[in-house]
Specification:
Order of helices and strands of chain A: EEEHEEHEHHHEHEHEEHH
Helix content of chain A: 25-40%
Order of helices and strands of chain B: EEHEHEHHHHHHHHHH
Shape of chain B: elongated
Oligomer: heterodimer
Strand order of the largest sheet of chain B: 1-2-3-4
Largest sheet of chain B: 4 strands, mixed
Largest interface: A-B, 31 and 31 residues
Radius of gyration of chain A: 19 Å
Radius of gyration of chain B: 35 Å
Number of strands of chain B: 4
Number of strands of chain A: 10
Strand content of chain B: 5-15%
Strand order of the largest sheet of chain A: 6-7-8-3-9-10
Structural class of chain B: alpha/beta
CATH architecture of chain A: 3-Layer(aba) Sandwich
CATH superfamily of chain A: P-loop containing nucleotide triphosphate hydrolases
Distance between the termini of chain A: 43 Å
CATH topology of chain A: Rossmann fold
Helix content of chain B: 55-70%
Number of helices of chain A: 9
Strand content of chain A: 15-25%
Number of domains of chain A: 1
Number of domains of chain B: 2
Number of helices of chain B: 12
Shape of chain A: globular
Chain lengths: 256, 376
């Protein structure tokens, strides 16, 4: 299963809303099993990049390649097939409010597998156990707390055992302990399952704790300033802005 | 893909080894944990469980959920589980699944309610919602007083927006509906009245029916579906997004700010729309009447004017005001009572329309009886 080929590659990606340029010339690659962080200041286009990667918004130019296959150039049918390998956790969970947690998780299983109702319920119960929500199968999303919604969203994202998990600000709105627990959970799950993870975040603590690859987007120059392991970027990157961002504005402007 | 299989190997000292082979994928056929669970139930029960996964191919959730089931039943009867024989990933996932204990009392148990219990609950609910509606009406009346005295806080521009939405923007649909209703009334009148040579009284029929009843009621139903639903959806969505709470914490009364301007806008616009609707209905009736009867436009017009009394007009206008109050009340009350999800917004909107139409029809009947008794 291991291939030397990167799992995800972005090539000359340019993102724009109409005439308004967001980011240009993005080039990075993500290996199988990486935990890849998309970081940068507010409004630099992190979430837009994520939307392009999961197929919600088309890029102005360039393309994203999954296992060497172009994503946007492959047409609707090809894109649907690739999307089957994705799991996505949205910022506030985006659980369907008319369904119980078990039904939220079961929808994808019902659509894309031949499992019977009882088996789907078993899988849903197991996924909820994994995220620490055992026994909450019959709750509706508006009956649980924000942190529980995030974890239920994670269980839903993992319903089909995806190869790639996308997270949009997973720890936003969580207390530090819950955020840490969620980070640990992501790390544990990805190591156990060998999943590739793409995370949009500006939580420095979680970037350093779990990320082993990243891209840094800059809103001023409208392009990427750095890519690589966030820990190394923090300590050794040549660009001051990158170090300053990662050190919470405390970097010394050395002329080295 | 090789088929998944599970076999039991009895070891010495009552230990049990479970040997797993093949590809354990959700997409394939899985044997399920039943042989192991059955063995655990028969005595003498094994003292420990071990796994052998030498022959195991690819695996995913299909394997782990089986392992979780085995672990659960083994744990329940106190059998030791030795997981060293499992792939490292699966071992960690099983551990993770048991890392957080099930919260006590979290699981829901569904039990059927008895008939009397159900009846009792619906009656209490109905009483509760009636009480809510009354409270809301009371608050609305107080808020309207503040509005009239100029003491309510609201955005003037919002108010004019509501006036436009409930007035000018409703013209096309009100025109269409009332015009067609006028034509239908005229058709019926021409057919029936010409039988005894009173065809010209079609003009009276259309004019009186439109001005006294039909224009107000049709406009009311259109507005319940259009504006009442919009009010419920707007306020309901604001409730879900905590926008209403944001107003409250600013010290602003959400009823003054959100509800009263909408209600007043509809109360002001309903009579105007009704007058306009009556005109459209009479016009529709006139076209049919002139085309099917042997009368000129002038004759038809003078017959119409002679048939109308000021009382009929005022009666119709009063009704339209009442309908306006009821539609706005239903829409805003449902919006303010909206729950905290997308689903709840839909339910509130539906309830607002249904409640609006029911209130219109019921009040129309009551008002008609009162008018008859008063001789209007």
């Amino acid at each position: 299963m291991e291939t030397a080929q990167p799992h995800i590659t972005a090539q000359d990606l340019t993102m724009a809303y109409g005439d308004f340029l967001i980011q240009k010339d993005l080039n990075f690659s993500i290996n199988r099993g990486d935990i890849f962080i998309i970081m940068g200041g507010s409004g630099c286009g992190k979430s837009t990049l994520l939307k392009i990667m999961i197929g919600l918004k088309s890029p102005a130019t360039g393309d994203v390649f999954y296992d060497g296959e172009p994503f946007w150039a492959s047409g609707d049918a090809g894109r649907e097939a690739t999307k089957r390998k994705f799991g996505t956790l949205f910022q506030s969970g985006a659980l369907w409010s008319s369904m119980t947690l078990a039904e939220n998780i079961g929808l994808a299983l019902q659509q894309f597998t031949d499992l019977g109702d009882a088996e789907i319920r078993e899988v849903a119960a197991y996924k909820l156990m994994l995220v620490g929500l055992a026994g909450f199968e019959d709750y509706y999303p508006n009956e649980i707390s924000g942190g529980m919604k995030k974890r239920a969203g994670l269980a839903r994202a993992m319903a089909l055992d995806p190869e790639i998990l996308f997270f949009d600000e997973p720890s936003a709105g969580l207390d530090p302990i819950s955020a840490k627990l969620l980070d640990d959970l992501i790390l544990e799950l990805c190591e156990s399952l060998g999943t590739t993870v793409v995370i949009v975040t500006h939580e420095l603590a979680s970037m350093f704790a779990i990320g082993n690859n990243s891209v840094f987007l800059d809103p001023l120059t409208k392009t990427q300033l750095a890519t690589g392991n966030p820990n190394e970027l923090r300590d050794h990157h040549s660009n001051f802005d990158v170090r300053n961002f990662l050190q919470r504005g405390k970097a010394k402007d050395e002329a080295a | 893909m090789s088929k998944a299989a599970l076999s039991l190997v009895e070891g010495d000292q009552e230990s049990l080894a479970i040997s797993l082979s093949g590809d354990w994928l959700l997409a394939g056929e899985l044997p399920g944990p039943d042989p192991v669970l059955d063995r655990l139930r028969t005595s003498p029960k094994p003292t420990s469980l071990a796994f052998d996964s030498q022959e195991l191919g690819e695996w995913d959730t299909g394997l782990v959920k089986t392992l979780v089931a085995i672990n659960q039943s083994a744990g329940a009867i106190g059998v030791q589980v030795d997981d060293t024989g499992l792939p490292a990933g699966a071992r960690r996932l099983v551990a993770l699944a048991f890392a957080v204990e099930e919260r006590e009392g979290a699981r829901r148990i569904f039990k059927r309610k008895k008939f009397l219990e159900q009846v009792g609950e619906s009656v209490t609910e109905a009483l509760e919602s009636a009480k809510e509606l009354l409270t809301f009406t009371g608050e609305l009346v107080l808020s309207c007083m503040r509005f009239l005295r100029g003491k309510a806080t609201y955005q003037r521009s919002d108010f004019w927006q509501y006036i436009q939405e409930a007035g000018a923007e409703a013209f096309p649909i009100v025109s269409l509906i009332c015009f067609l209703i006028g034509m239908i009334l005229a058709f019926v009148g021409v057919m029936q009245l010409t039988m005894f040579g009173a065809g010209i009284y079609t003009a009276d029929l259309v004019a009186v029916a439109m001005v006294r009843e039909m224009s107000a009621i049709m406009t009311g139903i259109v507005m319940a579906g259009r504006t009442g639903a919009a009010y419920a959806a707007q306020i309901g969505t604001m409730k879900v997004n905590e926008e209403v709470d944001a107003l409250t914490t600013l010290g602003m009364n959400p009823i003054d700010y959100l509800v009263t301007p909408r209600v007043v806008a509809l109360i002001v616009m309903m009579p105007l729309l009704t007058v306009y609707g009556s005109l459209m209905g009479i016009l529709g009736g006139a076209i049919v009447g002139v085309a099917m009867l042997d009368v000129s436009m002038l004759q038809y017009a003078s017959q119409t004017i002679n048939s109308l009394h000021l009382n009929s007009l005022f009666g119709g206008l009063f009704k339209s005001i009442v309908y306006g109050v009821l539609i706005a009340l239903a829409g805003c009350q449902q919006g303010m009572a909206c729950g905290n999800s997308a689903l709840a917004v839909g339910q509130s909107t539906t309830k607002a329309v249904v409640m609006g139409i029911v209130l219109i029809v019921v009040s129309a009947s009551i008002l008609t009886i009162i008018y008859i008794n008063l001789g209007i």
